[in-house]
Amino acid sequence: MKKLLHPLVLAFLACIHVSCNDDCETTRTYRTTVPITFNIEQIRSGISTEAPQDLVNPGKIYVKDNYLFINEIKKGIHIFDNSNPEKPLNISFLKIPGVIDMAVKENTLYADNYIDIVAFDISNPKAIKETGRVKDVFTTGLVDGVSWWYDAQAKTVTDYEIKVVTETVRSNCGQSSITPIYYANDVALKANTPTANQSSGGNGTTTGTGGSMARFTIYDDYLYTVSQSDLLLFNIKTLSNPLQQSKINLGWGIETIFPYKDKLFIGSNTGMYIFDNKNPEKPERLSTFQHARACDPVIVHNDIAYVTLRSGWCGVTPNRLDVVNVSNLSSPTLIKSYDMQNPAGLGIDFPNLFICESQYGLKSFDATSASNISLQQHIEKLDAYDVIPLEGKHLLMVGKDGLYQYDTSNPKNLKQLSVIPVKRDN
Amino acid sequence: MKKTQILLVWGILNVFPSFAQEVKQDFFQKHPFVNITEFGTLLGRSKYETYNYYYRGYYPQPIEPQYQIQNRVNFALQTFNGIYLNKKTAVGLTLGIDSYGPTVLTPISAGIRRNLIQKKKSSSILLGSLDVGYATTWVNEDNTGYKTSGGIVICPTIGYKLPMRNGSAWLINFGYRYQRASYKQERTSDPYWYESNEVRNYRRMVIRFGIEF
Predict the structure, then answer these.
(1) Global pTM value
(2) Of these four, A197, A200, A266, A401, which has the most CB atoms within 10 Å of its CB?
(3) Using the beta-carbon criterion (under 8 Å), do A20 and B205 form an inter-chain contact?
């Protein structure tokens, strides 16, 4: 019997030797952010005019006269000559690290350069010159669900790049489920789509047209910008040299700014601030009212606000269009709600209302009567995210696949003029 | 002519089964059938990366992975059906059911059992066994969007056989069990999470009790 024990002991030893450890490796592929740190000198010296480039990850759009400015998120600005909308010409690419927003007055382009605001002379779009800079304006920013932050002591900016990562980790053999990493950082559940919207922002022809998602707007001799928490006012009487004038704290979560008549509408997570802008030098807060959902695009025309609500990352709201009477700013009243499929951006060229239905395409409505908005045309089989109606029956529409231009002289039959395609890796 | 053909066919049809029956009986007299049914546990540990991993996408500084250890005890059941090639060696097919937490694998293996040492007749026997096969997922149920696949299984054991008077025997076996499997998530439509594939190498110590008859 004793002899018999030996093989057993050997078996135990063998097991210990090879170790009875489960060895499980999970290879996973997901989209996440990868941190990158820049020092401030790199950011400030990183500006240059380069040869035209393809659109990869377009952001906001700004239109000024015959020029079309398309933001390549945090990389730079594509400049197109759009004098012939059937054939937009890609002129140049202005490389600006960290650029998210822009605004143009006459021949001066204002853009953010992470922490700074920079003024550019764009009279020759092929050789753009930096003319002025206001330093250390912003300390943090948020675009496309990703935020960056400035470390004033180290003089560095930490930003995050969205990447598809494939990696292998040692996992626990299915004893707990492999959880998707939704919260790896600030990545909100947000589709990576361009943003632009119509606004009644332009006054006259000296400034261009941005969107209701814009954080920059020009009114009179002032450039208004919103950071995450403040309304910042810049005096641009000398176009080439902006001067910071005042700073109004608004609380956290500021998202958009858009002017309507002599009012400024500032959209935040929690509600909407309305500022009286009769004295542009010193905007005064009129009221605050609860916005249906802060991240939903709103446009205002003739005291009627059009708001699209959609299900998705904004919350579990129904897919619909709300038409709201805002003639009395302190107590908006709902006129009527219309069912939609998955509405995103919208634009109005009264009486025509254009609504993007994301993957369901673009819709053209007749909005002559707010209580009876009727469908005129539905362009399917394209991804529509946002629209900017321009003067002269001309519509700009951005989707995942590119920037489309339409002739809207017949709102029942939009004519596609051109497409600027987006080149994506995946 | 036709009659003889029919007779011949009739004759063959009649002779063959009886012949086969004899062969079968002969064969099983020479090589008795054996069934060994055992149940037991699979003991092991698992070392895996913890939550720290998730913050890698946020902090600019590199983060060292941190590991956690957990003990694992799982249930196993198997039945070996075979024949004795000679007095000491039996070969056959082993069908088992192993639960590894929520994953249930059904391995089918070729098995060999050999009496290694027996001091005298009817005393206890040192028994060696080896099963090599492939695990199927016949009785496994997957979470939505996931697919479990089996893999090879190798299981050498050593133990005692304690014969009973009626010719049956009690068994206790100790050994090692290696099992490979994978747990793959199909590509999702989620924009932030694409796919994952867990390759599992279960390495366990196995303790089994059973009966042979």
Answers:
(1) 0.65
(2) A197
(3) yes
